[in-house]
DNA sequence: TCTAACGTTTCA
DNA sequence: TGAAACGTTAGA
């Protein structure tokens, strides 16, 4: 239950240590860390070794980031494709998932973790913004190469087919991937004025049929913590407990998943590549 | 195939 | 009600 006072002291020290690590602009160079009590701790999730600077989490401070989503919002077109054609094959779903995956990698960094209110603000913002933006090269560096981004867009070539969607920046978290396919959370469509878009309700029923593991949000303090305390029960019982360090347990995952909330926002878009 | 870790169940 | 154990999933 309660941690021993020595544990608390240790953790305070660890937190102090980590406070300088979490915001380290070049954390990737650390392949191994030793905390003050001599424990070598590495992130259990290798992908978390690639930490993000705080600026990466700040969506609204960067118009280029926003416009990036305009350019890369083509991913949504796939969803439109899905919703338009019920007879779509499973293999096509896979292909679309793959493409979505690529696109989401480009978008997740700056949009991850938006709540629905932020999303609404986001969409409002886009009402006044065109699609003419060409992102500066630096904006393209967020985990996706120029070539990849271009090829994805070219492959899909859907903005003209789905004018509703081509200019809309969708957070990957607003996509819901189920065994039945990939589609948008209904609330997202409401926000986008697409609530009447066909088949969403039918597809939405598939969400409830399959349980999906939630993913760490990657942004809360525990998620950003990259060192296992090695002291808590989870660390001590890693073999049998199969649990992440208590101090690294995502705040979002600690909460009970609300069905309604889950539809709006799977934690930063489950089923996509979150940390890479 | 292995490892990390989420979800569920069981137990104190 | 929280901790522990275990099943299971997802990614490398």
Structure description:
- By secondary structure, the chain is mostly helical.
- It has a domain at 219-254.
- It is 47% helix and 4% strand.
- It contains 15 helices and 4 strands.
- A two-stranded antiparallel sheet has the order 1-2. Strands 3-4 form a two-stranded antiparallel sheet.
- 38% of the residues are buried.
- It binds a DNA duplex (12 and 12 nucleotides) through helix 13.
- It comes from Geotrypetes seraphini (Gaboon caecilian).
- Residues 210-251 form the CXXC-type domain.
- It is found in: Cytoplasm; Nucleus.
- It holds the Pfam family zf-CXXC.
Chain-averaged pLDDT: 46
Q: Name the helix and strand elements from N-terminus to C-terminus, one letter apiece.
A: HEEHHHHHHHEEHHHHHHH
Rg is: 20 Å
Strand fraction equals under 5%
Strand order of the largest sheet: 1-2
Global structural class: mainly alpha
How many strands? 4
Q: Tell me the helix content.
A: 40-55%
Q: So how many helices?
A: 15
Distance between the termini: 35 Å
Poorly predicted regions are: 1-8, 16-209, 260-276
Give the overall shape: globular
Question: How would you sum up the major sheet?
Answer: 2 strands, antiparallel
Please give a handful of descriptors for the protein shown:
DNA-binding; disordered C terminus; 4 strands; two-stranded antiparallel sheet; 276 residues; single chain
Summarize this entry quickly:
The chain has helices at 5-22, 54-57, 63-72, 75-84, 90-111, 116-127, 146-156, 163-166, 186-191, 200-209, 221-224, 233-236, 238-241, 251-254, 259-264; strands at 33-34, 40-41, 175-178, 181-184. The chain is mainly alpha-helical and 276 residues long. It has a domain at 219-254.
């Amino acid at each position: 239950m309660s941690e021993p006072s020595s544990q608390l002291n240790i953790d305070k020290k660890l937190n102090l240590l980590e406070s300088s690590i979490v915001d380290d602009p070049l954390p990737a160079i650390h392949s191994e860390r030793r905390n003050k009590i001599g424990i070598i701790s590495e992130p259990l999730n290798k992908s978390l070794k690639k930490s993000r600077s705080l600026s990466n989490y700040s969506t609204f401070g960067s118009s280029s980031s926003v416009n990036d989503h305009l350019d890369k919002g083509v991913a949504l077109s796939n969803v439109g494709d899905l919703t338009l054609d019920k007879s779509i094959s499973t293999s096509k779903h896979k292909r679309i998932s793959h493409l979505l995956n690529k696109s989401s990698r480009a978008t997740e960094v700056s949009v991850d973790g938006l709540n629905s209110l932020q999303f609404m603000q986001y969409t409002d913002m886009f009402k006044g913004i065109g699609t003419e933006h060409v992102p500066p090269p630096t904006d393209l560096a967020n985990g996706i190469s120029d070539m990849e981004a271009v090829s994805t867009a070219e492959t899909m070539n859907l903005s003209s087919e789905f004018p509703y969607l081509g200019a809309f920046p969708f957070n990957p978290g607003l996509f819901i991937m189920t065994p039945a396919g990939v589609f948008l959370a209904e609330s997202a469509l409401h926000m986008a004025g697409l609530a009447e878009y066909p088949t969403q309700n039918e597809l939405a029923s598939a969400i409830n049929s399959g349980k999906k593991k939630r993913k760490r949000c990657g942004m809360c303090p525990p998620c950003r913590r990259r060192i296992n305390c090695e002291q808590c029960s989870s660390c001590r019982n890693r073999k049998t407990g199969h649990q992440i360090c208590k101090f690294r347990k995502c705040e979002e995952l600690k909460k009970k998943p609300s069905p309604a909330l889950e539809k709006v926002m799977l934690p930063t878009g489950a089923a996509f590549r979150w940390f890479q």
